[in-house]
Protein: FAD-binding protein
Organism: Nocardia stercoris
Amino acid sequence: MVRRGAHDAPRRRGSGMSSVLVLGGGFAGLLAAAAAGPYADTVTVVERDAYPVEPQPRRGQPQARHPHFLAPGGVLGAERLLPGVTDRLAALGAHRIGVGADLLFRAAGGGWLDRADTGRVGISCTRNLLDHAVRELIREQYPVMFRTGCDAVELIGDSRAIRGARVRDLRTGAVDEYEADLVIDATGRGSRAAAWLDRLGIAVPGAETVDSGHAYATQMFRAAPGAESDFPMILIQADGRSGRPAANAILLPVENGQWQVAVGGTRGMSLPTDDAEFRTYARDRPADPLLGDMLAGAESLSGTMVSRSSGNRRWRFDRIRHRPCGFVVTGDAATALNPVYGHGLSTAVRCATAIRATLAARGADPVAAAGLQRSICRAASDPWQIATSQDRQFSATDGAPLSALERAQLRYGEQALRAAAYHPAVAAIVSDVMFLARPARSMGHPVVAAGALLGSRRPVRSEAPLSAREFGFRTSGRVA
Ligand SMILES: Cc1cc2nc3c(=O)[nH]c(=O)nc-3n(C[C@H](O)[C@H](O)[C@H](O)COP(=O)(O)OP(=O)(O)OC[C@H]3O[C@@H](n4cnc5c(N)ncnc54)[C@H](O)[C@@H]3O)c2cc1C
């Protein structure tokens, strides 16, 4: 059966585009659908899983069991693509995290940052809730069709043009052909786009990889009484500059009065496997025992779940010599990042923003896909550079060694971070870059450059900047 719904629909005036087919309905696929919504007559999302009615785990997103912070850069972009998304998430129980004010952040090499409010907000909730809210809003705002329980199995087309995809209905086994003017692959880390293109005679340059071997162990906890709706997020980065394996830790206050807590480490760290080991690790392994102390009296609500899905991997679909029309790749399917930097979701937002900009400017000319793929890759370029240069500091990382320039940039960044602990103006810019709310080149801003010079002479801030209430909690295990 050939589904031609897209071509049957009237074309929008002034736009050559009539139909967009998105493969994969995770965060990147949903936002790509939202991006295309105003510029296509039909948008169809093909998703392998059946979506749960309530925010619940599902098979195709094993990473959803681990903390997912939507950084301020992602929040700003998501709000432009899906107006009202932040309020919807907050109404469903997500926490707005004022970066600075509500975040205790110990940066690798930079010590604890100041609590000065930067005016930027990130979103802290479970990944299940995040995707649930985004799906709800898309259904309300755009006539997107969802084909769930359906597996994209291959592309339809030839070496010059992709015209759609073959899709297997997992309930019946039937394979349908879905035609579209633009096919967007958003099937995540496991994407088979390169193999699909290869079968059509299109050679994709090999993937670039940088793998620090980072692993995560996550547990859910009940927030301490009194701390359910008002407790800071905690981020302690792994400090691997010594060359030894290094540990990180993260506490996200999430919906339903719970904390989603992860500890992790670079290659060579052995991870906890049960509650007792988890608590010991959280106290003893990261560069500061703060998170372990905060957990002392907290009730564990789950087992310990491990993820090793952390390698940075980028396919250069933008560098295909003879690109076929009508096909682009986005989200983790194109650029997957080490999750410890918390950039994957925001990168998906940036890619979706690039999709919307191209469709707004060029309509649906399938030929525009080549330029669109370049924009998508550019959108992921800062996050890729940040994650891979940080990871390549660790001696056990698989990847090209750092160049002298990259080493100098990292040193400069550390000095800027030290300065950020004392100068709110420096902190505002540096944290914007870290959370993808400004381009990485903003690190060259004169305020940051002056700060980096001063920062080299300031000691790192070694004590977490706790409020009196948090300090009381740390020492007594009770919220006053
Ligand atoms: C442990 C861990 C923690 C993380 N923490 C953070 C964080 O704090 N902040 C952050 O920004 N990012 C974080 N990330 C990264 C984030 O999970 C990814 O960047 C994000 O999921 C990318 O979204 P995506 O839509 O590209 O992929 P996914 O969310 O993986 O979605 C892919 C979708 O495609 C579907 N699919 C796959 N194959 C097919 C097919 N053939 N046909 C149809 N459907 C298919 C899947 O079922 C799934 O729904 C973390 C990742 C991990 C592993």
In short: The longest strand covers residues 150-157. Residues 1-17 have pLDDT under 50 and may be disordered. The pocket of flavin-adenine dinucleotide is lined by residues 23-29, 46-49, 60-61, 63, 66-69, 151-152, 186-188, 190, 216, 307, 309, 331-333, 339, 342-346, 348 (CB under 6 Å). Residues 2-97+127-208+311-383 form a domain with the FAD/NAD(P)-binding domain fold (CATH 3.50.50.60).
